[in-house]
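We now fix the convention by which a protein and its fold are recorded. The integers have meaning only within a learned vocabulary of local backbone shapes. A record is reproduced here so that you can trace the correspondence yourselves:
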Amino acid sequence: MYFDNLEFDLINDLDYGDKKTLELLTERHPEWGVTTPDLSGYKKAGGKLIMWAAMSENAVPPASHLEYHDAIKRKDSGADDFVRTYAVPGVLHCLGGPGPQDAPERLLDAVIAWAEEGRRPEAVVVSGSGAAPVIAAVQGSTPPPPPIARTVLICPYPQQAVLNARQGAFPYDAANWVCK
């Protein structure tokens, strides 16, 4: 997308030492990346935005999502009226990892309820339970055991989930956590 060349191989062709390449990346960044915290037009149009940061992300630093949220808040102190950001523990790039794999679906449910019913989301319960991960079958292999049922409380940033239960309580039960 940056180079108008479908054959461009980011791994093998990107040369950070090439001044023209870097200039093109900079020139095209406003088209392909988020560069402004000014979402006033989006807010004025009635938009509702939920962003989420996969905290075990292995491609995009999750702090970039949180820094962008902070920049939006600095630009518009009333941003909580139309923007929420959630940090989701244990999730890799988009999905995968030991974290709750239904976070995108639960956050989509939350933004729909916000946009259609006016219910601004607060804490959201996500789950690590569900179908076993898809693993390529190897002839004669034993399928993996089903995942342990667990729920996780995720909180609107900058709040964090804090354990609020007796000692020894099951930590993967969202009911044992509160947002602070």
Notes: The chain has one domain: 48-179.
